[in-house]
Design a protein that fits this description.
heterodimer, A: mainly alpha, Cytochrome C Oxidase, Chain A, Cytochrome Bc1 Complex, Chain D, domain 2, 2 domains, two-stranded antiparallel sheet, 25 helices, B: mainly alpha
Chain lengths: 731, 80
Amino acid sequence: MNLQLDSFKYDDTIVRKFLVATFVWGLVGMLVGLIIALQLAVPALNAAPWFSFGRLRPLHTNAVIFAFAGNAFFMGAYYSTQRLLKARMFSDALSTAHFWGWQLIIVSAAVTLPMGLTQAKEYAELEWPIDIAIAVVWVIFAVNFFGTIARRRERHLYVAIWFYIASIVTVALLHIMNNLSIPAGPFKSYSIYAGVQDAFMQWWYGHNAVAFFLTTPFLGMMYYFMPKAAERPVFSYRLSILHFWTLVFLYIWAGPHHLHYTALPEWASTVGMLFSVMLWMPSWGGMVNGLLTLRGAWHKVVEDPVLKFYVVAITAYGMATFEGPMLSVKAVNGLAHYTDWIIAHVHTGALGWNGFLTFGMIYWLMPRLFQTKLHSTKLAEAHFWFATFGIILYAAAIYSAGLTQGLMWRAFDETGRLQFPDFIETTVRLIPMYWVRALGGTLYIVGMLICGYNILMTWRSRPAVLEEPIIQAPPLRRRPTAEELGGTAGAHAGQLSGLAFHRRWEALPLTFTVWVVVAVVVASLFEMLPTFLIRSNVPTIASVKPYTPLELAGRDLYIREGCFNCHSQMVRPLRHETERYGEYSKPGEFIYDHPFLWGSRRIGPDLAREGGKYNDLWHVRHMEDPRAITPRSIMPPYAHLLSGRLDFEGIQKRVDVMAMLGVPYGDAVKHAPQMARAQARQMAAAIVEQGGQAGLEDREIVAMVAYLQRLGRDVKRGAVATTGVNHAGGQ
Amino acid sequence: MRLSDVVSHSGLSFYAEVALVLFLIAFVAIAIWIFRPGRRSEMDHMSRLPLDDGASASLDGTSSSDQAHHGAPAPRRTNR
């Protein structure tokens, strides 16, 4: 049998690049995390407008998710894909374009987010030009990846490749759907969705970004790198296939659990809850599969830091995927939502699962990529223990903080009144825990610095010239040969059937990809169609009117300063919430909200009913120096709004885009700046009348206060006028 | 809640049940497909793919010379 072997080389240069990027951005993202953690404990650290919590928090989340975990995914995928498919990446040029394109996107995020350029959607904050760049780079990655599949020399696609395929196609779909918006300037856009629909779309995205950016790629890598490190195959390959398909079918559904007790339809959140609970099964199947891969090799865990990292990573995956379904149960969610509990949950996932799996991969890859010994196994061990204790401290503190605040919010005294009616009481109680969190984060970062030193020293001890081993593998076209199919008689038939085989396996990845897309799209449609169908069914409240041009400008300032990172605008229909904030929120209130600003965390109180609670001057003083009004407040100061001049002329374009999106602006589409100026003068006069300073009529603060004073006003005003209509609609 | 009233009246909650049934059918079908007997060799082959991917440098940096092993034709009957 004369079998010709192909000779080729793997491209490890690209893997080395992604390894360095993973580490560098991971360190940056976590340092920003430490900074914002300290800003909560010491509000004076909000030193400048661009250096305040509201603008840095999105930078932290984006850096950790897309820069750290993103580069880690690319690192692991580029290494394992080539080897699993026995082929070099499709195009070195595309690999390079992918790498530099992605780093450029990260840099642009690091520049624009502190500038306050944001779409106000969690984990999709980046503005439209960057969104387009992300889509382009993602397509480059996809072409490179699928091109490699097309040129592979291994007929079968290992399950890791399945996870990568699902991640690539689904992330593309999520990114495009959630970021559909109309530009209102080079770095300003409005979501095409409003209110309930926007919320639904955002959390369909948000949840599935966790699923298909932080879970499936890392599971793919677990299924490759865990067997490699343990030097034995995965415990059950069948279980891994089941794990894959159930995740693909289930995850997509679970988004609505982020919106329990909001103005989302009841049935939608129930389905979300149901599917979230079902997610528990495949997730734990995957965890068991990962851990049992170590069967008979547990003694290795003692010596090998790589396996230590993997074991904790997979355990953290198990904990987070148990907790997720639990949190999606409405009763638990009612307590946990808007509190630090959710922060603790995501950090179990990010620090434990994504972080530790990544560090395990880095330590395993380093000797192979730099063709030398790891500089120090002891230092890797030290990293492991620092990071582990860091996570434990972080989790203990922030779970306690979440429970404490959640329970304080809902506490009633024996007379049936709120036990802690002042929100600030529930905030101050958390400060000690914020310090412990900062300590935990510091330990984790110290671990990373140790890792960085280890990377540097390993890199320095690399050989002068890195060897590029030549790999030989039979080309796929050759199989099965005529001989294999049985002698000369069968030669002709063999050739034919060989071609048939060829077509068959070439079509397989395509068929597979189509099935994944079908599963994801069908589930998404089932989940979303009703919400879009009910657009006409959202009971419009007659008194809800579009924001005035000045209020719209104020809303954009609210978005720029990232207020939504700490303040929700959604009163849930729970007694302690209506007692504290006022009437619960209705879907009809948000029909002009492009984008929605319901928020997901209450570091400060809810603002849905803020309008009219205090006078204008109170807001001016409070924004200028929050601690002058509330001594222990942890809110950053916004004095720059008092000096910053409002761009009145720019409001026209914003109103025009809103009108284009169907907001009935009437006359304002012709003279928005004049209307805004008139309202600003009125407000400035009122502020002077209340004893405040003069000359604020052209400052940003009037727009901000105008917006804050508008919140919830429409419903209060309409309570008398439309009660009858509402009741008729409901019954 | 007002909206949920409207939606339930317009019969859209039916979607959720359809989806649930569809998912369960898909889940059972996949489970049967995966756990159907007689695929042991294929599964074994698949699960060994990561361990069999050539050019693995050992920790001390020397490339293992197991190319021959990879180059072996290893005639595999496909039963698909």
